[in-house]
Hints:
The chain contains 18 helices and 11 strands. The chain is α+β, with helices and mostly antiparallel strands.
Amino acid sequence: MFCNFRSTFFALSAVIAGITSIPAFAQMNAIKFEEYDMPNGLHVILHQDKSAPVVATVLHYRVGSRDENPQRTGFAHFFEHLMFEATDDIPRATIDKHIEGAGGQLNAYTSFDETVYHFEVPANEIKLALWIESERMRKLHVESKGVETQRGVVKEERKNRTDNTPYGTSFEKLFKNLFGGGSYGWTPIGSAQHIDVATISEFKEFYNKFYEPNNATLVIAGDFDTKMAREYVDAYFGIYPKGEEIKREDFKLPEISGEYRETVEDTKAQLPAVYIGYRGPKKGNPDAYAIDMINTILSGGQSGRLYQRLVDKDQIAVQSYSFNQDLQNAGMLAVVGVVAPGKTTGAVEKAIYEEIERLQKDGVSDEEFQKARNTEEDRFIFGKKNALEKAEALAKYYTYFGKTNEINTEIQRYNKVTKADLQRVAKQYFSVDKRVVLTYVPKTK
Length: 445
């Protein structure tokens, strides 16, 4: 019901096309905020936005699938669901009723590096949102009834999103073979078998380790009084002591020894498809901004190189796009081609490689470069339109960069990227002997 951990995966497969050149960055007003650390380690960020009588709260926990035991995958995603169960003072199945009854909305998502919970409520309901988040932080009931309910929910979600979806295993297979042996080697949805056999005590141990104030960032954005908000935060979250320091294993990025290829017979697919994945740089690396721009050039709607070549010109694919997943410690860029009826996977794969090689050999045109830059400026500004979007961005900038003000300045990193950088990065990361190639072919049941 609440989970959307793969939304980023799908959102990155489509980019804005045909944006005209406008001085977007020059038109942006700086987002102002206050931030402070509580004695228990909770980092708090406050941003006032009086444009609408709404308050958004975001509680960003620094725990994702990479923090899991490889024999107990899916725990972070499981808790995304379990956190909507009972607490000491909130009965089961009532959190959504509290928020929706107050005229608000709620959701959560999990990724490799984070688990994030958020509420949007009328401004006069700020206390309700903060009270619920404080209850869930340390008073969650990790008990049989809730756990068994959510086991079923998570398993059903996996069936719907992965097992019973055309090409549904592609995300898992790309990460498994690009990052196998490291903590990005499995995806947040995890293994249904691992969740099946996990015990209550194992779930409690995970909760008590990661759901502590010193492992979280709380953001409040919207129409509120700063002094009162601080008082509410102190009252609701200040009661918890600082948790034990979390000892995380060093991130491992195993070497790739050569190209990996696999043919997958897919009973859900009606057309063959090719998925080609490459490792990319981590979030914040200067090359990550170049990869973003390359993704736009390859996959910028009908004017993108992949659509122009494979769909429009050669007519060998009904769909072709790329998507970029930049994470805290590494990244991935994948290129996809869904084969047109009567055409072959070999022809699609060959055309994709030719477009990548053209990028490596000839670089990009002035027009493509400007379009990519304009697209990033547009995303940077218009991706922070409302209180919730700004709250989520503030939490991420603090968590991943340690510099919350990157919410105002990160666009400068894109503006430093040159055409030469795009060509260099294409040569560096799109390596023939370090890619994963998945060929999906329909299989009749």
